[in-house]
Amino acid sequence: MIEVYGVGTARTMRVHWMLRELGLEHVVHPVLSRSGETQQEGFLALNPRGKIPVLRDGPLELAESAAIVGYLAERYGGDRGLIPPAGSDARARYDQWAFFLMTELDAHSLYILRRHGDLADLYGEAPQALEAARDYFRQQAAVAAGELRERGPYLMGETFTGVDILLTSCLDWAAFTGETLDAGLAGYREVQAGRPAYAAAARANFPPEAMAALQA
User: Fold this and answer.
1) Least confident of 17-26, 115-124, 153-162, 172-181
2) pLDDT score recorded for residue 117
3) Looking at the structure, do residues 67 and 23 belong to the same domain, yes or no?
4) 93 and 187 housed in the same domain
C-alpha cells in the first residue's frame, strides 16, 4: 500500500493530486510542516531533510514533490499520458518544465516569499528580497503564460500531464500570497481546479482538523 506523509502545503498538494488522477489506493499520514513531527526520529529516517512530502511505495522511500509526481505518473500512469515516454523529445520538454517550475517559481520566488513573509519571525524580514521575489515570479510566470497561449491548453499541448499539477500548485501558492495572476494564468488555474481529482486532493491535503492544529 502506498503511504503519503504530509498535508497542508502546495508541495504536498501535488502528490495528493497525482494519486487521485491515477485513482491509487493509499494511506495518508497527516504530517504538518514545522509542527515538530518532521524532526522526530521516525520521520527523519524516511527523509533526513526533515521535509514533506514523502512517499513510501514498498521498499521505495521518495521525497521531493516533483520527483514523486513523476514517479507515480511513470510507474502507474499506463497510457493515460500523464508523463511522456522516457527518452522521447516530449519527455525532455516535460523535464525542462518540471525543473523550471521547481526552481524559478517554487524555490527562487515563492519560497522566498514564504521565508521572509509568513516565516519572517524565523528567517528575518527582508523587504527588498520580497519585492525582488515578486518581480521575479511575474517574469518567470509570464514564460509559462506564453507557452500556454502558443501550445495550450496545457503546458505540453493537448494533454494534461504532471507539469500541469506542478504549475497549478505554484499558481495556487502565488494567489495565497496575494499575487494577482494575469488573465491567461488565472483562467488556466480555474480550469485545472475544476478537475475532480483536484477537488478530492484539496479535501485530503487541507483537512480542517490538521489546518486548525497548524493555526493553533
Assistant:
1) 115-124
2) 86
3) yes
4) yes
Find residue 157's DSSP bridge partners: 154
Rounded CA-CA distance 10/199 in Å is 14
Q: Is the distance from CB of 213 to CB of 34 less than 8 angstroms?
A: no
Strand ranges in 37-118 using DSSP code E only, listed in sequence order: 54-57, 60-63
Q: Are residues 96 and 131 in the same domain?
A: yes
Instruction: Specify the pTM.
Output: 0.95
pLDDT at 216: 45
The answer to whether residues 38 and 67 belong to one domain is: yes
Locus of grid cell 517554487: 106
At 142, the amino acid letter reads A
Helix axes 162-176, 89-100, angle to 10 degrees: 20
Residues 208 and 130 in one domain: no
Q: Are 22 and 80 in contact (CB under 8 A)?
A: yes
Number of domains in the chain: 2
**Whether 97 and 118 share a structural domain:** yes
Q: For residue 28, what is the enclosing H or E element?
A: strand 26-32
On whether the CB atoms of residues 76 and 15 are closer than 8 A, the answer is: no
Domain span at residue 68 reads 2-80+199-214
Q: How confident is the model at residue 69 (pLDDT cuts 50, 70, 90)?
A: very high
